[in-house]
């Protein structure tokens, strides 16, 4: 019950729950490889001031504070959650019924407790927003801090939207733990394309919780490109709560030296005749650690579900490690589900072939790694974003292999 | 150009090359024949620098340099080319894509200016005509779903682009239809000059009708057991290898 959670007593309760549990440690099953234990001991600023940075993006979150700059596209509103609920009593009822799977997530409590302004990006029925909305999620703090942020995206029936999120840290920032919760509601026949580019500093820990509810005949194409951060965790949940729902989850992570990237995905099929396609790829450089935990639930009602999951990883260094865990729980009998995870080295034969043509070892490896990740990048239809991501990934791989 | 002395190599515990001696001069064509498993592809791989093989003895000098001291890419830049018996499939990498890198890396090694996109395309077009290869094939992922003949043709196309000093063609004729064989052989002959040399590994005389060798060598159990002129290939075609093997007293 989000709207009551926002009253101060709900926030207090959430804070109590968080205090009782603290930051997740590796004793928690879902946080086995990715402990945040050290944050329990830090002297933190829990509400760092918003910054005065400006970017070209229309939607900007600065140290957790989200604003819309410039003119809103026709049929789009950006208002506080309270105002949104007041204007939409029927939606209030819907929110009450939603049920995220919170996997021992004390961070969600922390977010409820300390988020000061929850905003809603609201696309009205039948509105197709033709220009992609860019969302810059910016971090910059003077001393060690924890930043809370929450954004609601609400698409009414037949609405369509492309969101490009760029999360980054301003150079010179002190260390920061960013705890970003998004709740996204995609109504009947609505369409959302969402590209997340996570390119944060080496002293940044970024936890992204994205919970998406989809109703009948809706489609979501979500991309998570995890490029940099000391520690990146994506808790991505899809609640497929209608028929003929299409959910596409695409992920690409390229953790480097001293970086850990962790994707925990949940696809929860609750109604019949829907499909989900999950394609995750990782290139692990240096002594990087990667985690992929992909849960698929097919509830008893969800007959004729098609759910596919694939997670492929290349260890580009002998010091890198990857932990994968697919988990399928299927209660319906007439379904098509498949999952597959692979982790391996680059093909030695292919490397030799390219070198025998005069291509240096480092360039041959870069070529093969790019060919490996291209499949995910190519699915991005927003050209400018695709080019930017390609450049960033090439340069990250090249830099790492040159060392 | 190439001087191989007592070359020995093994993979794991298995000795494969047991003392190869071979001298190749600019302008020459050498054919290497021999039964399956005798070590022909191993010799080709060792020359190209495949790291799976451990060289346990001998030396190889190529254009005045110690070949065994060079990385595979340096060997290519020095002018060595291997047309693979079994070209590998590389998903997501097209011939056009990697050959652009290859050409410019080699040019850089030689202190030459890189080719820009326009120059590269022009050169590519010209070389495509040598082996009658289609642009669409070069834009596809390397060898993925290529027919046997298309793979071989693509190898010779790459050779045409790189203009090596020494080309080693490892069973380039196998899998080619009659017309393709002629086209590929014509491509090879077109690239022939007094400055470069070719090693042709083959099982059949057929190819040698088109690419006429100056010398024919028989490799058997990791050694060259017989050498001769082009007529040796004809004799092998007729008589097989038994007479050579029995002459060895085995
Ligand atoms: N990776 C390997 N591991 C073990 N043995 C190998 C390996 N590669 C080659 N060999 C062995 O080395 C020997 C020589 O192989 P090679 O491929 O050089 O023969 P070849 O003369 O080219 O034969 P073909 O005419 O069939 O192409 C064979 O007995 C082969 O089984
Ligand atoms: Mg062979």
UniProtKB/TrEMBL annotation, chain B:
<comment type="similarity">
    <text>Belongs to the ABC transporter superfamily. Ycf16 family.</text>
</comment>
<dbReference type="GO" id="GO:0016887">
    <property type="term" value="F:ATP hydrolysis activity"/>
</dbReference>
<dbReference type="InterPro" id="IPR010230">
    <property type="entry name" value="FeS-cluster_ATPase_SufC"/>
</dbReference>
<dbReference type="InterPro" id="IPR027417">
    <property type="entry name" value="P-loop_NTPase"/>
</dbReference>
<feature type="domain" description="ABC transporter">
    <location>
        <begin position="2"/>
        <end position="246"/>
    </location>
</feature>
<keyword id="KW-0067">ATP-binding</keyword>
<dbReference type="GO" id="GO:0005524">
    <property type="term" value="F:ATP binding"/>
</dbReference>
<keyword id="KW-0547">Nucleotide-binding</keyword>
<dbReference type="InterPro" id="IPR003593">
    <property type="entry name" value="AAA+_ATPase"/>
</dbReference>
<dbReference type="InterPro" id="IPR003439">
    <property type="entry name" value="ABC_transporter-like_ATP-bd"/>
</dbReference>
<dbReference type="Pfam" id="PF00005">
    <property type="entry name" value="ABC_tran"/>
</dbReference>
<protein>
    <submittedName>
        <fullName>Fe-S cluster assembly ATPase SufC</fullName>
    </submittedName>
</protein>
